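Sequence design from tokenized structure. All designs in this work follow the same two-part layout: the structure record, then the generated sequence. An example of the structure record is given first.
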């Protein structure tokens, strides 16, 4: 197969056309004449975590709350391991970015007084099935923004110790892209598919997080030597059984309690309520024989049931269809709940790039926003908007100060050769599906997956480290017959790189700070004396260096130091 080599130039390249990526592009277009290219593996109209819509904005400063109270909530939920400077800068923008999206046409539910309808202390209800098409339409109207759909990016272009673009290829056409840019914003999302999922075989992609977010942005940064943070702070979602639909719609929307098979409320038996503890308490109740566990909805009014039917149609229609198919809605029977496999996602936990307050990564010329940026948990949709805005403004300021650098032609040819080796006609010795299944089995059994009760120990992690390295070495034997199969190869390779870093972080944090997220049987207690700090890492020459950094408070202005 012959590939065409195409070189493009732009001012700012945005990798990922999801929530943060689209908002970053809109920010640039509304504030400058800079030329922007967005590359999106799918199509920005229905890509990323908002592809199917969303029924609430989970990060909003309601009356009686402040950015500081939001920071306190995030700090408590994450046991203090957050970048307070990042969280507060995000929180201060939440309401303004919400207003901007409402002007694009997003329907936010209001009460008789004209106030937003709250769901809990920090959430507001929306009719968000069309939120992604609204963002895409706004982006496509900007004359200085070019969207390249169905283009998969694979690595950054680094020259003179600066990120000056990225490499990728078209999924539908035989084209290899080199995109030169003065600055790059990574907004690709987190990583799903590292662990064996709840549902096997044909249904394996019925999961909480977008199965198409495979950690590409993380992996690009890892391979380039960017510093990463808190990758051991995995996220495990508590979800409706089988459909993997969100439980917050019920728990926060109608105030349903978590009960075990005996009808007993159990969450508070395991410490102060928090996101990890809601998951942990459910796991323990099941392990100790008091399951299955439920959200107590039986007996709710019929009008509340109808509201739930409509709410789930905005983001998880499988749950509504299940109720209708069974002829038993939540007013008739309680909703069984379970945990998902672990994910690495910086929008709910703190995993991702180590960035400064401008959302600049440790690689000069590279910025990160949304799920791929670390240090700031509980971003959700509006937090990703806020970070996209911050990264965009920072990138615009950066390119005003620097002189463009041309990409070395030899570097392009070398990368082109590395890609085309997977397209050789000789059959591969291994299928992508085999490698993916082996990776998920290793992570599940030895790095704290569902079958292990999310628990790790050092002996198992050392086995996982060895086995993932072997699988990554074997990835060189993969072959693709077309561009679509080539995407699958890069997806599994990216996930293997992320697995390596996750394992090293789990080994490095010798404590149990977040139940389930990093449940370490060898170190079952929290150790503030030694581990009240960030676990960071940097990849280079095949090795992963662990870096410990001190906690950054909200009134500190952290900036990268050479």
């Amino acid at each position: 197969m012959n590939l065409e080599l195409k070189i493009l130039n732009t001012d700012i390249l945005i990798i990922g056309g999801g929530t943060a990526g689209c908002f970053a592009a809109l920010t640039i277009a509304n504030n400058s004449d800079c030329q922007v290219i967005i590359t999106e593996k799918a199509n920005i109209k229905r890509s990323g975590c908002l592809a199917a819509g969303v029924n609430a904005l989970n990060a909003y400063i309601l009356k009686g709350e402040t950015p500081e109270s939001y920071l306190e909530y995030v700090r408590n939920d994450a046991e203090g391991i957050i970048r307070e400077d990042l969280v507060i800068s995000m929180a201060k923008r939440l309401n303004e970015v919400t207003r901007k999206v409402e002007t694009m046409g997003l329907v936010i539910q209001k009460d008789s007084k004209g106030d937003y309808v709250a769901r809990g202390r920090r959430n507001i209800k929306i009719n968000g099935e069309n939120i992604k098409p609204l963002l895409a339409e706004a982006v496509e109207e900007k004359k200085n923004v070019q969207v390249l759909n169905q283009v998969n990016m694979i690595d950054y272009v680094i020259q003179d110790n600066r990120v000056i673009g990225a490499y990728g290829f078209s999924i539908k056409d035989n084209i290899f892209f080199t995109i030169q840019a003065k600055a790059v914003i990574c907004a690709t999302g987190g990583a799903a598919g590292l662990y064996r999922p709840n549902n096997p075989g044909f249904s394996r992609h019925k999961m909480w997080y977008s199965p198409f977010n495979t950690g590409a942005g993380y992996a690009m940064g890892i391979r380039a030597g960017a510093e990463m943070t808190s990758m051991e702070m995995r996220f495990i979602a508590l979800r409706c059984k089988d459909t993997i639909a969100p439980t917050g719609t019920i728990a926060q929307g109608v105030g349903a309690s978590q009960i075990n098979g005996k009808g007993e409320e159990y969450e508070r038996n395991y410490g102060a309520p928090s996101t990890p503890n809601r998951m942990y308490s459910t796991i323990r109740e099941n392990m100790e024989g008091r399951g299955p566990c439920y959200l107590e909805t039986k007996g709710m009014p019929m009008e509340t049931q109808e509201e739930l039917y409509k709410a789930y149609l905005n983001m998880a229609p499988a749950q509504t269809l299940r109720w209708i198919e069974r002829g038993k809605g939540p007013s008739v029977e309680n909703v069984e709940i379970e945990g998902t496999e672990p994910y690495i996602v910086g929008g709910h936990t703190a995993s991702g790039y180590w960035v400064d307050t401008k959302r600049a990564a440790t690689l000069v010329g590279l910025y990160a926003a949304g799920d791929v940026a670390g240090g700031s948990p509980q971003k959700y949709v509006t937090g990703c908007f806020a970070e996209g805005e911050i990264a965009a403004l920072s990138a615009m300021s950066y390119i005003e100060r620097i002189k463009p650098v041309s990409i070395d032609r030899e570097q392009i040819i070398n990368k082109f050769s590395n890609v085309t080796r997977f397209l050789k006609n000789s059959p591969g010795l291994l299928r992508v599906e085999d490698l993916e299944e082996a990776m998920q089995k290793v992570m599940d059994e030895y790095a704290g997956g569902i079958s292990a009760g999310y628990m790790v120990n050092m002996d198992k992690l050392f086995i996982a480290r060895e086995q993932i390295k072997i699988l990554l070495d074997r990835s060189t034997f993969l072959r693709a017959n077309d561009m679509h199969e080539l995407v699958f190869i890069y997806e599994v390779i990216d996930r293997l790189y992320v697995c390596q870093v996750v394992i090293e972080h789990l080994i490095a944090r010798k404590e149990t700070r977040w139940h389930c997220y990093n449940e370490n049987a060898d170190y079952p207690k929290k150790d503030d004396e030694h581990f009240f700090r960030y676990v960071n890492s940097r990849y280079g020459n095949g090795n992963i260096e662990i870096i410990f950094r001190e906690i950054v408070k909200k009134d500190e202005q952290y900036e990268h130091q050479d």
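The CA atoms of residues 227 and 538 lie 5 Å apart. We note this feature because it recurs in several other targets discussed in the main text.
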